[in-house]
């Protein structure tokens, strides 16, 4: 193991998929395709919303914010994933590791915040459709976007500095293909109590987002059940399907991974690594597909652009 000043480690070691190191180059093919589809899908969503004036509405502005978060997650994890699976390069410097975990956690918090605001958007659209446009003006949506980005930045800003103050003496092998705060701080040989407390606080903020999303959907369901017409009930619920799928896609891997770390007596490293990779790969990949399939306006605009390109 390489060390610095006879005590501190010079680099951390990331891992790929245990037991399948010989097949990493083959595994890199589907991983690269998944990243390519995710980046193209979210870029297409942003392009369609920007160029189509009919989509300049609060719901689609929030969808654009979600796409930005997904692109951020993809680009944050892409460098180390490609280095590991394409070139079998496991080393990462501490500063690069701290920077990567800052961006990964930052965009994770941002996505959680955007999903919360989108649930409030769906509640207002169903509960008070006549006042919806007056309540969510373009200026208010833009301010909400700035607040969400600022909240995400402020919450994770201390992470790199609290990690940098720790000493890393002997252990330098991380548990994933990318750097996470909770994974890195466990390698420290100095007191990491501040990291534990603050990491728990940030995780609690994310879980509070989920709690408020659940409350929003409870209110949505209550409002829908008060509608007399069954056709109108289904129409109202159908506007929430895409967002509900996005919530499941984002939170299920997080909760599963946290439960495995906390409660599993005999944790499978392979299972944990796969779920952790799914956590970063699945939302950016699936969100554009879900919204294109379930949202008629997005689907029609995307198909229209494709037909124009093919017709040239």
UniProtKB/TrEMBL annotation:
Which GO annotations describe the biological process of this protein? cellular response to lipid
Q: Which residues form the G-protein coupled receptors family 1 profile domain?
A: 41-291
Q: Does the keyword Transmembrane apply?
A: yes
Segment forming the signal sequence:
none
Protein's membrane topology: Multi-pass membrane protein
Instruction: Note the Gene3D superfamilies from the entry.
Output: Rhodopsin 7-helix transmembrane proteins
Q: Which GO terms describe its cellular component?
A: plasma membrane
Organism domain of life: Eukaryota
Q: Which GO terms describe its molecular function?
A: G protein-coupled receptor activity; olfactory receptor activity
Pfam families this protein is in?
7tm_4 (PF13853)
Alphabetically ordered keywords of this record: Cell membrane, G-protein coupled receptor, Membrane, Olfaction, Receptor, Sensory transduction, Transducer, Transmembrane, Transmembrane helix
Location(s) in or outside the cell: Cell membrane; Membrane
Q: Indicate the transmembrane segments per the record.
A: 26-49, 61-82, 102-120, 141-161, 196-220, 241-264, 270-293
State the family named in the UniProt similarity comment for this chain: Belongs to the G-protein coupled receptor 1 family.
Q: What does this protein do?
A: Putative odorant or sperm cell receptor.
Name assigned to this protein: Olfactory receptor
Query: To which species is this protein native?
Result: Muntiacus reevesi
């Amino acid at each position: 193991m390489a060390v610095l000043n006879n005590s501190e480690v010079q680099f951390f070691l990331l891992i790929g998929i245990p037991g399948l190191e010989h097949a990493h180059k083959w595994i890199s093919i589907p991983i690269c395709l998944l990243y390519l589809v995710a980046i193209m899908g979210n870029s297409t969503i942003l392009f369609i919303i920007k160029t189509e004036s009919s989509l300049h509405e609060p719901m689609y502005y929030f969808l654009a914010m979600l796409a930005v978060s997904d692109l951020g997650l993809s680009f944050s994890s892409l460098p180390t994933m490609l280095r590991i699976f394409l070139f079998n390069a496991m080393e990462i410097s501490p500063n690069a590791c701290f920077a990567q975990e800052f961006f990964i956690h930052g965009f994770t918090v941002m996505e959680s915040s955007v999903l919360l605001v989108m649930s409030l958007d769906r509640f207002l659209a169903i509960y008070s459709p006549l006042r919806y446009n007056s309540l969510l003006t373009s200026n208010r949506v833009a301010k909400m976007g700035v607040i969400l980005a600022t909240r995400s930045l402020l919450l994770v800003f201390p992470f790199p500095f609290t990690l940098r103050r720790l000493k890393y003496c002997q252990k330098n092998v991380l548990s994933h293909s990318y750097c996470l705060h909770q994974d890195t701080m466990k390698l420290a040989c100095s007191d990491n109590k501040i990291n534990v407390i603050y990491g728990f606080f940030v995780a609690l903020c994310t879980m509070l987002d989920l709690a408020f999303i659940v409350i929003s959907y409870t209110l949505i369901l209550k409002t829908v059940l008060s509608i007399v017409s069954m056709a109108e009930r289904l129409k109202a619920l159908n506007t929430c399907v895409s967002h509900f799928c996005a919530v499941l896609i984002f939170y299920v891997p997080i909760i599963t991974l946290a439960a495995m770390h906390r409660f599993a007596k005999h944790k499978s490293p392979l299972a944990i690594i796969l779920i952790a990779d799914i956590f970063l790969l699945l939302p950016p990949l699936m969100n554009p597909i879900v919204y294109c399939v379930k949202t008629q306006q997005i689907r029609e605009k995307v198909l229209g652009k494709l037909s124009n390109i093919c017709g040239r």
